[in-house]
Amino acid sequence: MGPTETGTPPARGVSYKTMTAFTPADEERRRGVRRMKLTATSMLLFVALIYVLAKLASHEGAGTWAGYVAAAAEAGMVGALADWFAVTALFRHPLGLPIPHTAIIPTKKDQLGISLGEFVGENFLSEDVVRQRLRSVGIGSRLGTWLAEPEHADRVTAELATALRGALTVLRETDVQAVVTEAITRRANTKEIAPGIGKMLEGIVADGAHRRAVDLVVARAHDWLVLHRDDVMVAVEGGAPGWTPRFVDRRVGERVYKELLRFVTEMRDMPTHPARGALDRFLTDFASDLQSDTDTRVRVERLKGEVLGRGEVQDLIASAWTAVRSMIVAAAEDEQSELRLRVRAQLLSLGARMATEPRVQEKVDSWVEGAAVHVVTTYRKEITSLITDTVASWDAEHTTRKIEAHIGRDLQFIRINGTVVGSLAGLLIYVVTQTLGA
User: Fold this and answer.
1) Contacts of 132 (CB under 8 A, 6+ apart)
2) What is the pLDDT of residues 60-106, one digit of tens each?
């Protein structure tokens, strides 16, 4: 089908294609159109036969009734032919003659598509229309009532779980790991951690929470010294000068070991031990330096960068996604998981509030209206161009037959009505003429 038959050539990148193939329902409609065409044509032939018989009867000297019948039949033929021409001109050239302003649908298909797109954009995609329509629907109240039903909340929960599981399955593990690693590393590099650590350490020391850690360390140190006396002795003796006698080194080792054990034991058993107080003061000063001392903060940041740059840390960050993903997938698949139960409970609660609280309904309606208005105002041109381009891509001949199959049956009633109305109008005119002539 060339440009001369379809009105205008297709836009670049848009090729003519056939509309959806004829379905059995379309074929049934076409048979109905053919039946109605036969009926309308039969009525035309019937009034034509009546006209001929009435004229013959008039020439044979029949009464005045023959003139009335002939006038009605003649006007009926005119009406039937005129409406046949009008209906046919919508879809094709009558009798194949290229009469101007005929075959309107195939020749004006693209213009009709443009007009349809503009009509939809102006009357359905305007901000006022969208807001009024959504406001009249009351989405917040209806959605809340629907969502407050347990079976509906179960359904939404299941659909959300399926969508979440599908999304996590589709995502490539390596890509997500790379994104997570980069995001965590970038976030850690851009945010200074020393003040935060100092603030946290300050709070821990103030609450005395660190003392339990000190108790644990001192107790473990005491147990280790008891079990590793020989190791301590060897270490002390190994650090002694080579010119000292062995028995002196051993006596020094024993003395050092006993002092260490005594110190650790006293520190373990005495909450008021001076070493504990010294440790408290050290931690307090260190917490202050982390927050206010520039040199300390720089050193902490340097250490942070070295730690984050290690391959083991990067691998740990990357593996975190795998663990999180497995946990989420397992929770999404398990109907009794804490995740799904919490989501279901939240949906039921939200539904109940939306169904009963006007303020929540108003918020939901406002959000929906805002989102819909944003979509239609931002993408109105794309939506209307979809209609225009789609219509432009249809094959003209197939489109014509498709449209005729859908509306042709009703259009044939125009021909039938034209025959009847024309006959009545012709009879009325003849009656008026005869009356005035008398």
Assistant:
1) none
2) 877 788 889 999 999 999 999 999 999 888 888 888 888 888 888 88
425 pLDDT band, cuts 50/70/90, is: very high
Rounded to the nearest integer, the mean pLDDT of the chain is 82
Token pair belonging to 238: 């190994």
Residue (of 1, 15, 18, 14) closest to 394 by Cα position: 18
Structure tokens at 85: 């021409």
Please name which of 123, 89, 122 lies closest in space to residue 108, comparing C-alpha atoms. 89
Report residue 159 as tokens.
């659909």
Asked whether residue 21 carries a pLDDT value surpassing 70, the answer given is no
Q: In sequence order, which residues have a C-beta less than 8 Å from that of residue 90 and are 6 or more positions away? A: 104, 105, 411
Q: Whose CA is closest to 195, among 280, 281, 294, 308?
A: 294
pLDDT in tens, 320-376: 777 787 888 888 888 888 888 999 999 999 999 988 898 988 898 888 888 888 888
Say if pTM beats, i.e. exceeds, 0.90: no
